[in-house]
Amino acid sequence: MKIFNRARQRPSASWRQTTDRAFTLIGNGRFEDAGALLVRAADLEPWLSDSWFNLALLHKFRRDWEQARAAGLRAVALLDRSTGAPDWWNLGIAATALQDWALARRSWQAYGLRLAPGEGPVSLDFGTTPVRLSPEGESEVVWGRRLDPARVEVLSIPLPSSGRRWGEVVLHDGSPHGERVADGVPYPVFDEIELWAPSPVPTFVVLLQAGTEQDRDALERLVSEAGYAAEDWTSSVRLLCRDCSESRMPADDGHSEHHDPHDDGQLGHLSHRSAGALWLPERECGLAAPADLVGLLLDRWVAGNRAGRAYRDLEEVC
Which of the two ends of the chain, N or C, has the fewest CB atoms closer than 10 A to its terminal CB? Predict the structure, then answer.
């Protein structure tokens, strides 16, 4: 078989050495230098799908989606298998980033996923999944609803350090880093690539006086019924080192392990929702609701049990 008038064969030693050097540079964050080497590798072996897959991967790292799509299309054109190639998955991510829904659908189907006929955004019932926000900074693992193979809608209330909000949709990578086990079921943790759709709903932090767990639950239920979210950060936040976060970790109380802010020197857990823990009435709570509604919701919550409920220090943080 000939491609570009050249017989298919194993890549040359020069191609392998050039590609290896490029990925060493990528690991050091030197994307520009790596790009020059990968272009050279593609010139050496233009018939090889890996040449274009590697370039598409680099452009994904750089968030250059137009170039990622162009290189990805060349990669899939040279594939020698019909389904399951990672080239299609990366092309699907690039197409989703660009909202090129026709190409996204084609990519997921070529990878091997079954899609209902239609146009526009892909909609699949992938259930809930943990996603790592801001993986290159002060990262945080939250739970979200997986809309399709590359997008997650954030259902937790992220800490303000992540710069993310409840209800935002983030583009995520396909290779998991770590697992969370909830109710005996392992869930892969996907890394965020970038913000895909922002949320207009701000995040507030407030200090609650909740006499019992039922008082805390009443606020979360009240805000949820209004169409927004409240989360007891005193219970749901756990601090993990990076190695722990990227390993297989249990999620306390089902899906209550929402956050894993990282610090390589920070070890241990913070949680007060685990079985047998002493209830502390003062709770730090995150609230995701419009500014003109959040105070009204808190006042309504206090009115339900004035003897056991109060709040103070309400502040918008993201």
Answer: N
CB atoms within 10 A of CB 274: 12
d(CA 273, CA 279): 8
Scan for tokens 């968030």, then name that residue.
Answer: 63
* pLDDT tens digit sequence for 217-275: 999 999 999 999 999 999 877 655 455 545 444 555 433 344 444 333 332 222 334 44
Report d(CA 279, CA 289) in Å as an integer: 26
All structural domains of the chain with their residue ranges = 2-111, 128-197, 203-316
The CATH class of the 203-316 domain is: alpha beta
CATH code for residues 2-111: 1.25.40.10
CA distance 239 to 261: 6
